[in-house]
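Worked Example 4.2. Consider the chain below.
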Amino acid sequence: YGTVVPFVERECSIQRRYQKLVEESPAFGMSLQRRSAMADAAVSIAKAVGYTNAGTVEFLVDESGAFYFLEMNTRLQVEHGVTEAVTGVDLVRWQLRIAQGEKLDITPERTLTPSGHAIECRVYAEDPDASFLPSPGRICGLQVPSGPGIREDSCAVVGGEVPVFYDPLISKVVVWGTDRTHAIARMRRAMDEFRVQGIKTTIPFFQWLIRSGAFATGTIDTTFVDTTLAERDGRGFADHSSEAEEAAVIGVAVHAFLESVGRETTENLETSSPWRRAARAAALRI
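Applying the procedure from the previous section yields the following structure tokens:
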């Protein structure tokens, strides 16, 4: 039908080996004028080639704010959940509807006006302390984040193998907040809740990143990860602060205490008479 609908931009500067690690929408510091100009350029490109389907037009922005065409990805991208979170539009559903010959009935006024702020972290089976080298292996333990404003897309399961032959992406975590500060707080909680055992992942990097001043102020570019690795000069991203160490000590102490209480309870039950055990069980039911 010739209808092309542009969507609000996604910021994807944090990457390694030209592959994205973090995406967010809307972009930090994006003016309405630049957003409109980018949207117009993207629409012109799609119309020029008669494109039909979901697609992403990528631009590079320099320090002056000028933008330059980089490429067009003629597919649904990994980070489409970020756009869905701030627009409320189900992109996959619309792909299917377009394939069935339906006409778009959504307007640019809706798709170019973000509601709140969304951030995505791509959790890879990579070791950020070893320059993001792949970390294949078996997942021995898994605890995924959940709660208000958190979406986790993954096929990872306990016992699952991360092979050396494919992309090491194991999970996408998307958070939504009423504004960027709110979204950052939710992502901080999500990364702190996320646990993967058996393989190295990028989670420690994200835990550090979300708390960094550079991310908070949006002073990042496509060289951010490489520059950070050089500045840290081999220092790991895992939290080894005094607070973290104190929390770990407390956790060990609590675990030991609960185990000792459990042993004492078991011993008392074993030495008490059957009559007393039956009475206690009855009391618990009451």
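DSSP finds ten helices and 14 strands in the chain. The CA atoms of residues 256 and 262 lie 10 Å apart. Compare this with Example 4.1 before moving on.
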